[in-house]
Fold this sequence. Notes:
The protein is flat, with a radius of gyration of 11 Å.
Amino acid sequence: VRHLVEMCSPLVETHLVERADEVDNSWLAGKHHIGIAAGASTPDEALEELTAKLSSL
């Protein structure tokens, strides 16, 4: 995932987080679309928490 962040960051605003509570709501101001990338070892629970947080905003 870190390599993907390195590749994307020159092109689009990119943030690497490990937990949903690390997301800063200001990152999403004015955004209509976001992308989420996760490694194979990322727990399903972590992705579920992240998508729940993003859906609630």
